[in-house]
């Protein structure tokens, strides 16, 4: 059944419009529930499509935009849209006027309206000037990005800068340890592709990858496409959904084909991060198997290292990089997508613990992107200069995340009092841009969306139970009303 069209003039006011959006929300969820068994789409895409269809339908019915914004809140997407930031703590234009980030990061166009703040465009212009300087610097070193790069892993100047950055975490590296890619996901794909190729050169299958659930599932799809077997291990709530040393040891003993462990050091979706002792425990297991002649690589995803308290990040990373005897079995994946709110820029890189392995992996880069785009490398270098000269920007982004996480927890607690949705609203480790919570019996992501308008992602998206749900604070600010 479809509601008749209503113009904003025909509505009695915003509250009536909101009621109409709620009704439309209920109707579209009923339609999708009826077709649940017919869809082969993953849960994350189902929910994203529901939100998109509902927003489109509300526009077609001429519902008031304010009512739509109140009653449809997309918390499925993790990416931060700096153009939508409206938080201003304290004085306008002050240090905690987060609206300025779009201007300060060089994303906002000159004269662009950022929720009441007019962008100067200084950051936008500065980045382009810095790209010019970067290209001149590269040419002076004999590197011309306008010709084909036979190696494809990025220019050695940029790679050297990124290697130097790792010293902050206690890891000594050079440009030869680093390969640059189009985001962390692209880098992970290239590493898995490279290991698969090395196995086939020895007439062997690629082996298997261990994934801890709940966890980011894109690498699982990549591993499958490159011929790996998958071993998914369910973690426990009492362990804060983290892989423990005993669980890792047992899984490796039972599955001798595992040669790669994918480890999200700071976890999406659970918002928990490994402590130094927990990381040391995992490395002890890898060390013991290495002493028995079995080489197992840790593919350490650092995508959210940098979203939390700096001292905590420093401690966990120093623990991760201090195991000299298994350094050649460590592979570090980094990105500025989440930590620096630069998802669309696709800045990612790999640091290999072993330069010999890094050299063997080079074919994965040339056989995929062939040669990394010159303009992209210059842009990456410009941003590297921006953050080197303005480290306060990184702290400002951390503060924004902290503010949004706190506001989201408060909002969920308020909604829980009204609708009794959650068995537990988990506190996080003051990291990532998510909230991971357990639903009461009988609730799921659909019922939460129907009752509150908050669209989250079901736990099955991350290889876990739909008793859990993940919300993002990323793309949209958290309403305080």
TrEMBL record:
Q: Which family does it belong to?
A: Belongs to the class-I pyridoxal-phosphate-dependent aminotransferase family.
Q: Which UniProt keywords apply?
A: Aminotransferase, Coiled coil, Pyridoxal phosphate, Transferase
Organism classification:
Bacteria, Bacillati, Actinomycetota, Actinomycetes, Streptosporangiales
Q: Does the keyword Phosphoprotein apply?
A: no
Q: Which cofactor does it need?
A: pyridoxal 5'-phosphate
Q: Which residues form the Aminotransferase class I/classII large domain?
A: 155-473
This protein is called Aminotransferase class I/classII large domain-containing protein
> Which positions are tagged coiled coil?
398-425
* Superkingdom as given in the UniProt entry: Bacteria
Matching entries from Gene3D superfamilies are given as: Aspartate Aminotransferase, domain 1, Type I PLP-dependent aspartate aminotransferase-like (Major domain)
What CDD domains does the annotation carry? AAT_like (cd00609)
Q: Which organism is it from?
A: Salinactinospora qingdaonensis
